[in-house]
Amino acid sequence: MKILIKISITILTLVSCGKETEKKTQLVESNFKLKQDFTDFKRKMTKLDTIKVWFNHSVCTYQAYEQLEITKNSNLIRIKSEFMESTFNDNPKWKVVYNREIPITDTIWKFEKFVDQNKQWQNYDINSNGTLYVVNKKDTIRYSVSGLIDLNKFISEYHTVMRKLYPENKENIYGINEPKKIK
User: Fold this and answer.
1) Distance of CA 26 to the CA centre of its chain
2) H helices within the chain, ranges in order?
3) Contacts of residue 72, Cβ cutoff 8 Å, sequence gap at least 6
4) Please, which residues have CB within 8 angstroms of residue 109's CB and are 6 or more apart in sequence?
5) In sequence order, what are the residues at sequence separation of 6 or more whose Cβ sits closer than 8 angstroms to the Cβ of residue 169?
6) pLDDT for 123-147, tens place per residue?
7) Which domain of life is it from (predicted)?
8) How many Å apart are CA 128 and CA 63, to the nearest integer?
9) Is the dihedral of CA 14, 15, 16, 17 positive or negative?
10) What is this structure's pTM?
11) What are the residues facing 76 on neighbouring strands?
């Protein structure tokens, strides 16, 4: 009789664990679509989504690049920045500049607004060199800026937006900070 009770309990435990695992598997899903949801990514992405951003800081003879990795965990957005400057470096390497966490309700860092306001530079040619790439899974949004004046304006706007996220701006990756005025 004791053996029959132990077998029954074991079977019930296995069945209930199997149903619980099945429920968890069904709940974990992402419907985030980069091209249609990016302007509200802080709210719409899930912990399964990763947005990768590649930005070309290069102008004239200066060569530098940045990679951002944007993820979500609960009510926080995590942003990791890596930077590589190759102008005077024979063996350039990516280095982590910062890791930030911001709430999904954040209204200070308006990266999605910057991207949306610069739609005129969107480029659908997958073979062209770009200034900015935003990638999620197989979706990519490309921005290619032509002309030195427009490129400098685009980079300046990007730096302004990114300084909101990283005001320390160590190593001046987001342009040279203006000196504080003496009163």
Assistant:
1) 26
2) 2-27, 34-37, 41-44, 111-117, 148-165
3) 42, 45, 46, 47, 49, 78, 104
4) 102, 161, 164, 165
5) 163, 175, 177
6) 877 767 789 999 998 889 999 998 8
7) Bacteria
8) 18
9) positive
10) 0.78
11) 73, 103
Distances from the Cα of 12 to the Cα of 20, 75, 95, angstroms: 12, 36, 52
* DSSP assignments along 110-158, one per residue: -HHHHHHHTGGGB---TTS--SEEEEETTEEEEE---SHHHHHHHHHHH
Q: Are residues 68 and 81 in contact, defined by beta-carbon separation less than 8 angstroms?
A: yes
Write out pLDDT tens, residues 8-17: 565 656 666 6
Picking from 78, 27, 69, the residue whose alpha carbon sits closest to that of residue 50 is 69
